[in-house]
């Protein structure tokens, strides 16, 4: 039960001051010794566990003190089944104890013991061993009690989206470990959706930046010596290539114009027909301006500008894996 830090002093009379614990979970004397351990040396209760780490001679447990009592019990439980077992992985990941032993030492009984410790870790503060919940601290997930979460500026990870944002690019191993430790699979569905939204936002930003350097319909009308209405008509007919900006106006890349002759490139209408449908605007522009080995190391736009055969460009585009 959460209490007040101390009794108040009433009516000006000094009274006994009593500190009320804010802990949800009391510690045993042995656990308290581990959590409050102040020496740089490993506590005696954890030396057997430390000696099992592979490779030998590892000096650090790489786990905060709040989980030391949990580790001490875990070591004793496994050693009662397999006295000579070896630890190949020990740490904290996604707010869960990350613990693996030599596969040759692993049995179904030991796997259940490890799973139980991992489950316990998800409700144990890594700082003080009090009852805890999952929090986000920057781009990390960490299991903390409310007091230490507040001290660290961490925020509750209440939803799948919270978890997804803290695990931006999980490996297959991360996903498998998280699922085995109780992280819901839906969190990684949310993660994939979050990554996709981030990609779409970045793509939209890149596209807008590219289109901002292109010509407006008015610019094109001046270049071709034609009314703006005619430019819009050519675009609708598929005779000019354009992308729509955020402001709703169309922008036209310069590569599609034969500027000296003040006209669109020869054969442009046939080439643009290849891109009919839903195509990446910036990607199309990159295809038209990048060099092609089958076009004598010219870009498709340069090839057309030189009046070379249109069929060669059509063949190159139709055989491209980027379409």
How is this fold's topology laid out?
Layout: H1 29-35, H2 47-51, H3 68-79, E1 87-93, E2 96-101, H4 108-121, E3 133-137, E4 140-144, H5 146-152, E5 155-156, H6 160-166, H7 172-180, H8 185-211, E6 215-216, H9 217-224, H10 228-236, E7 243-244, E8 250-252, E9 257-258, E10 263-264, H11 268-274, H12 281-289, E11 291-292, E12 298-299, H13 300-305, H14 310-318
Antiparallel strand pairs: 1-2, 3-4, 3-5, 6-8, 7-8, 9-10, 11-12
Structure in words:
The relative contact order is 0.06. This protein is of the alpha+beta class. The chain has helices at 29-35, 47-51, 68-79, 108-121, 146-152, 160-166, 172-180, 185-211, 217-224, 228-236, 268-274, 281-289, 300-305, 310-318, and strands spanning 87-93, 96-101, 133-137, 140-144, 155-156, 215-216, 243-244, 250-252, 257-258, 263-264, 291-292, 298-299. It starts with 28 loop residues before the first helix and ends in a 5-residue tail after the last helix. The strands form five sheets. It has a three-stranded antiparallel sheet, sandwiched between helices. It has a three-stranded antiparallel sheet with strand order 6-8-7. Strand 1 and strand 2 form a beta hairpin.
